[in-house]
Amino acid sequence: MKKLLLLMPALLAPIQFAVSCVREETQEEKDEKLAKKYEKDIDKGKYVFDDFEQFEMKDEYFEEQLEIDELWTKPDRNIKKYWLTGLFFNDFDKWYNDFQHKFNIFKKLWTNMLQKK
């Protein structure tokens, strides 16, 4: 049993080595994959850029305004006012930057294809 426990690290070492060899894609490699995908779409006659997810609004993006607003304080009205939170602006900026990045790759390919023709 003791020998088996001593051999465990030696037996598991190749697994750890194999896991450490897996590398993540760089941004340039991801961009090249996107460019190839868009190029295939353009070759198929699909000239519309639609490779993006719609931005989804979440409940966490809204915060109820607790200040009393004199314009809306009629007793027969039940009007609530909401503000957008900072989380909304952060998430929207991330979504917008991702959209712009993908669209610029598509636009660059499109102009290159037009110049070739």
Describe this entry's structure for a reader.
- The protein has 117 residues and is mainly alpha-helical.
- It has one domain (25-116).
- The chain is 58% helix and 5% strand.
- The chain has helices at 2-21, 27-43, 86-116, and strands spanning 62-64, 82-84.
- A two-stranded antiparallel ribbon has the order 1-2.
- The longest helix has 31 residues, at 86-116.
- This is Lipoprotein.
Outline of the structure:
This protein is mostly helical and 117 residues long.
Secondary-structure content class: mainly alpha
Assign a percent range to the helix content.
55-70%
What average pLDDT do the residues reach?
Answer: 79
Q: Helix count?
A: 3
Name a few traits of the molecule.
3 helices
Topology of helices and strands:
Elements: H1 2-21, H2 27-43, E1 62-64, E2 82-84, H3 86-116
Antiparallel strand pairs: 1-2
